[in-house]
Amino acid sequence: MAPGSTAARDAIERQIIAFLSSEVGRGADWSISPDEHLLTGEYLDSLGVMRLIAHLESTFRVTIPPNDLIPDNFRTVRVMAAYLTHQGAKSTGEAG
C-alpha cells in the first residue's frame, strides 16, 4: 500500500478500532464508527488517551510531538488515521 493511500488509512483505522475495542469495548457486540467522537468522556478518559497515544506510537512507529497532543488530532478514529498517515505511519497488519 502506498503511504497516504485510502487503503493504508483504512487499515490504520481498523487497527485503532481493534485497540479501542480491547480497551473500552463493552462486550462482543461493541462497535464504534470511524467518525464517532471519542473525547466526550463516554469512550476515553485522560488515562485512556495516554494509553492510546502510547499504543499509536509503538504500533505505527511514530513519535507524536508534544505540540501535536491536542484534542483535534485524536477526536475520531478517522482523524487519528489521517494524522498518522501524514506522519508517515504504516499499517503493521491487522491488530489482534
Helical proportion, percent range: 40-55%
> Tell me, what is the CATH class?
Mainly Alpha
Q: What's the Cα radius of gyration?
A: 12 Å
Question: Uncertain spans, ≥5 residues at pLDDT below 50?
Answer: none
Helical stretch count? 3
| N-to-C CA distance | 20 Å
What's the number of domains?
A: 1
The number of strands is 0
Q: So, the CATH homologous superfamily?
A: ACP-like
- Main sheet overview: none
- CATH architectural grouping: Orthogonal Bundle
Judged by helices, strands and strand pairing, the structural class is mainly alpha
Mass-distribution shape: globular
Q: Into which percentage range does the β-strand content fall?
A: under 5%
Output the CATH topology: Non-ribosomal Peptide Synthetase Peptidyl Carrier Protein, Chain A
Round the mean pLDDT to the nearest integer and report it. Answer: 85
Tell me the series of helices and strands, N- to C-terminal: HHH
Structure characterization notes:
There is one protein chain. With 96 residues, the protein is mostly helical. It has a single domain, classed as ACP-like (Non-ribosomal Peptide Synthetase Peptidyl Carrier Protein, Chain A). The protein has 3 helices and no strands. It has helices at 6-24, 46-60, 77-86. Helix 1 packs across helix 2 and helix 1 (6-24) packs across helix 3. The chain is globular, with a radius of gyration of 12 Å.
Q: What tags apply to this protein structure?
A:
96 residues, mainly alpha, Non-ribosomal Peptide Synthetase Peptidyl Carrier Protein, Chain A, 3 helices
